[in-house]
Amino acid sequence: MTAIPFHIPLKRFFNFYEMKNNFDQYASQYDAWFLDNQNVLYSEARLVAHFLKDAGDIFSVGCGSGLFEMILEKEFGISVKHGLEPSEGMAAIARKRGVEVEITTIENADLGKECYDTILFNGTPSYITDLQKAFDKTYAALRPNGRIVVLDVPKESSYALLYNLAKAVGTWDHPLLENVHPRDPYPIEFVKIANWRTTKEKTEMLVKSGFANLKYAQTLTRHPVYSNNVLEYPIEGYDCGDYVAICAIKNKEK
Questions:
Q1: Domain contains 4
Q2: DSSP labels for 71-127?
Q3: What is the distance in angstroms between the CA of the first residue and the CA of the last residue of the chain?
Q4: How far apart are CA 95 and CA 46, in angstroms?
Q5: Cα–Cα nearest to 197, from 106, 124, 148, 118
Q6: Where does the chain have alpha helices with state H?
Q7: Rounded to an integer, what distance in angstroms lies between the CA atom of residue 101 and that of residue 169?
Q8: Helix 38-50 to helix 67-76 angle, to the nearest 10 degrees?
Q9: Which residues, listed in sequence order, are joined to residue 17 by a DSSP beta bridge?
Q10: Nearest residue to 81 (alpha-carbon basis) of 64, 102, 99, 68
Q11: Which of these, 214, 247, 219, lies nearest to 231 by C-alpha position?
Q12: Which of 3, 15, 85, 185 is the most exposed place for a label (fewest CB within 10 A)?
């Protein structure tokens, strides 16, 4: 039995424990979903790469199975060799792909002071309980003029609306969702444990942490039913994409 850390509220602990167990149990299913949806995968990978040019020493928060890190290196020449991941099952796969992974959460991790040039959150904000604390810790861990790159499905997007409906009814097999979700919807086990936030919420948190010079890019601009039909390139902004990236710079004057 895992001991409950005294500093973590009981409800938050069991939410984390359920999340960790789901990602451990369904680690291979996570990869399989992306590999079955190649256009979605590579549209998102292009968005991740968009803000990682000349990114220096990169640390990945919630690197999962290391799938994106592997694609970044093979397709874009971007090396991400260090990260953290709460799920042991996911971390084991990432290590086989060449990522040095610490098994922990961003809230509990010790990232040090001014250790990295770039810290990446790819699809992880919706699985982080205390996102403000995560951004504060990231700010401290970045070198002067370092960047944070935050990518996720915004709560206001078409995907998140479908996800939250599926979460509310507990399944994709519901009359309200018939013929309106993708042929291969995101595994319900991952949908149930996510907490999507709006782009506005994440922006406000980043500014509160001290970040400045925020820039936005987006992809997956078609309805989710059709998003895997074509490979997309990133476009500026955040008003029509179902996957949005925010890049912000450490404000050394804070």
A1: no
A2: HHHHHH-----EEE-S-HHHHHHHHHTT-EEE-S-TTT----SS-EEEEEEES-GGG
A3: 43
A4: 23
A5: 124
A6: 10-25, 27-36, 38-50, 67-76, 88-96, 131-141, 158-169, 188-191, 199-209
A7: 35
A8: 70
A9: none
A10: 99
A11: 219
A12: 3
Q: What is the pTM of this model?
A: 0.88
Query: Which run of H or of E encompasses 211?
Result: strand 211-219
Over residues 41-85, the pLDDT tens digits come to 999 999 999 999 999 999 999 999 999 999 999 999 999 999 999
Answer whether 64's CB lies under 8 Å from 94's CB: yes
Residue 5 domain-assigned (yes or no): no
Q: List the structure tokens of 121.
A: 């959150």
Mind listing the pLDDT tens digit for each residue in 90-119?
999 999 999 999 999 999 999 999 999 999
The parent domain of residue 71 ranges over: 10-250
DSSP structural state of residue 1: -
Phi, psi of 197, rounded to the nearest 5 degrees: -120, 155
Which bin fits 159, alpha (ψ -120 to 50), beta or left (φ > 0)?
A: alpha
Q: Cβ atoms within 10 A of the Cβ of 46, count? A: 18
Structure tokens at 85: 């991941």
Q: Which two tokens stand for residue 248?
A: 């912000």
Give the domain CATH number at 56.
Answer: 3.40.50.150
